[in-house]
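Q: What structure does this chain adopt?
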Amino acid sequence: MNVFLWVLQILLALHTVMGAVWKFTNSEQVVGSLKAIPHGVWLGISVLELIWSACLILPAFNKNLGFLAPAAALCIGTVMILYCGVHLASGNPFNGQVIYWLSVLVFCAFIAYGRLVLKPF
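A:
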């Protein structure tokens, strides 16, 4: 289980880094339903995503930082809920984007549960 959780954490970290880089190179205007997010908040989320990605990996180097992985997973999951809420509040239908964000949320929840209950550091 520990190896599986590490694989998920690394994949989530890579996914989150790619999302952060994409946010730096693209405006929130690219995703029509996310236009409601101010540009400063959009860039701030990018910086936080980079920090959270590091927090997913840091426990591999220092076991005392084990609390960071579930916390980072929960933070990333919270952002996924934010995107779903903004998308649905903009009047857009439940579609593939929402399913994608909810899928990432499930991975985040599993990592948090796994590191807090199943196989803590």
